[in-house]
Amino acid sequence: MRALMLVTLLAILPGVATARVCKDPCVEAARQAYRECxxxxxxxxxxxxxxxxxxxxxxxxxxxxxxxxxxxxTGFGAALQxxxxxxxxxxxxxxxxxxxxxxxRKQCVDQAQLQTFQCRNQARRSRRxxxxxxxxxxxxxxxxxxxxxxxxxxxxxxxQALQANEQAVATCNQVANADTSACLAKDAACVQTCRDARTxxxxxxxxxxxxxxxxxxxxxxxxxxTCEDATPPGPQRDACIQSADSAAFVCRDGxxxxxxxxxxxCTTTYIGCVRSxxxx
Length: 280
Known about the structure:
Layout: H1 2-12, H2 18-23, H3 25-52, H4 57-73, H5 76-97, H6 102-126, H7 128-142, H8 154-184, H9 188-230, H10 235-276
Helix pairs in contact: 1-8, 3-6, 3-8, 4-7, 4-10, 5-6, 8-10, 9-10
């Protein structure tokens, strides 16, 4: 699908050299964004399938929260946030430096976006073994949570998960198409306006997500501390901590769901904006 989109664009733009497609930082950034989007969609589907199985839901949610905490302890999330913050700062410098030079501004921003994705990929690669251990720890944790047999209603649950995944993949494809078109076929100044508007739309929503998730984590830490203070080591304390972890997972999940419509609207608006830009 990705290659097909590029070939289609080249077919309608015969003057664009193949070398530009291969080396253009804008195209490469679009490709990296598409890969991340598909990776996120796949991860969400895996989690949804796990939660559709006939298992102790509190136990599974606690294990998923443990995996998230394990990943956080690797510094992966903090590294991704640093990459994003540095990328935003670099793009802002481009906007300030090339205020009256739209083509140079676009080239500068494209390079900043590409460097951001490269930074994120490096953060993931450098922690690959640690992240794999977190996944192994989750699987071991979830083994006692009950049999992996489909309960009544699981078909509907799985069907809903697959439908949500299909929509997520379709959105990834639409954004990738818009991004690639923006690189090769649209007016640079107009495209940059669309990008700036998308950033302005997403930033407050993402900040709200980050703040709310931190609140979920703070609540979890307080609950775990209470469990440790109030109960001696043993099954009762373990059950108390498991309940706290499960509640934290539900809290995180609820935060993301509450902001999902707003983020989806930002994406829809961006796609429409790029499509409306005149040819470059």
